[in-house]
Every structure is written in structure tokens, then in C-alpha cells.
Design a protein that fits this description.
By secondary structure, the chain is α/β, with parallel strands linked by helices. It folds into 2 domains: 116 residues, Rossmann fold, CATH 3.40.50; 95 residues, Orthogonal Bundle (Arc Repressor Mutant, subunit A). 41% of the residues lie in helices and 22% in strands. A 5-stranded parallel β-sheet has the order 2-1-3-4-5, sandwiched between helices. The protein has a 4-stranded antiparallel β-sheet with strand order 6-7-8-9, with helices on one face. Strand 4, helix 4 and strand 5 form a beta-alpha-beta unit. Helix 2 runs parallel beside helix 3 and helix 6 crosses helix 8. It is elongated.
Length: 222
Amino acid sequence: MQQRILLVEDNLDIAQLIKEDLEHAGFEVTHAASGASGLVSAREHLPDLVLLDLGLPDFDGIEVARRLRHSSAVPIIVLTAMDAVERKLALFEVGADDYVTKPFSSDELLARVRVQVRRQQPRSLLTLGELELDIVRRTARHEGRPLKLSPKEFEILALLMQKPGRVYSREEIVASLWSGQPPPGAGLIEVHMANLREKLRACGAFGVLRTVRGVGYGVRPA
């Protein structure tokens, strides 16, 4: 499956060049020319990475990054003409993962994009304290004892364990596990989460799951 990138850039000439480079490298690119349209597009298309220009005509890029981070763990790379240390720190404080200072080469941008995308790829063995998931064998253990999970419970837990401490929105879970399509049955994710929480508690894995009301789900760092 192609990795989906959302490019939020108001300069149409620059946007077209970046879009062509990314598509040539095998990415699927959606373009938004303002902060408002970028936020809407992020909700609708659920990208795997966001390239965000700092100087937008409506919202400051820092505000867009802050709003994105409220509901999503998607990697954010900021495109900025500013090189002030204070500005860089502000970007990281609101949740940006990286930045590229303009002007930049296409090779540099592609390299930074690939680093962030690669970090999102699941590892074959996920561990969280005494909890262990083998992605290849699709087995779960806690303190060495088998933990019986349904296929979807396993997939949800594996997704959350990829980044302990981060909260995944319901939309991100649907995009990852149901290919962006609504899961069959209202409240199905909530049912899976309740069953998963009960099974973890039964095996002694207390307090692993985290629910942030109105935002989503995650696992607490060990």
C-alpha cells in the first residue's frame, strides 16, 4: 500500500514541485493550500505523514501542528524559511517531528520523509514491561504466559504498542485496521477495547490501556 502524504503549502509552484518529487518516489500525495483545508484533509484522508508549511495565509503552521497533534499521532515535518532556535523549539513543543529549512533539495526532503515513514513501520517483536507481542507469529504473552486475543484485539494492541504514550484517535485505528472504512457495527471499537482491557486485567497486566475521553486510546509507557 502506498504511504499517504498530506502536503500543506500555499505556494502552488513549490507545492507542485514537491508533489511531483514525492509521487515519483512512490508516495500518494494530497495537497492543501491553507491551514483550514489542511486540517479538514487530515481528518478525511488520514495521511501517514504531514508536510506542513510554516507560513500559511490563514493559520500559523505552529497552530496547525498543535491542532493536528490534539487528535492524531501522524508524523509532522515542518517546511520553514526561518532558522531561529526559538522557532525550532516551538515546533517541537507543539508536536512536530522534524523540520526542513527552505530552500532545501528534493533529496534532503525525501530522506527526511523516509526516516519518519520508516519509524512508523511495526517491529516484529513489541514489548511493554512484561507484555510481549510477536507480530510474525501473532502470539501474545504476559510474564511468559500465553494471552489469548482475538485477531482484531491483537491488531489493536499491536498498533497501540508501536508508540507507547501516544494516543491514537478512533479514525487512526479505523484507517489502520479497517483500511479507512467504517468497521461493521456501531461501537465495535469500543467493544474490542473493553474486551481487551478485561483480558489484560485477567492476566495481571493492570493499567496498560489508556483511554482519553474525546481523543482516543493508547498504552502507557512501561
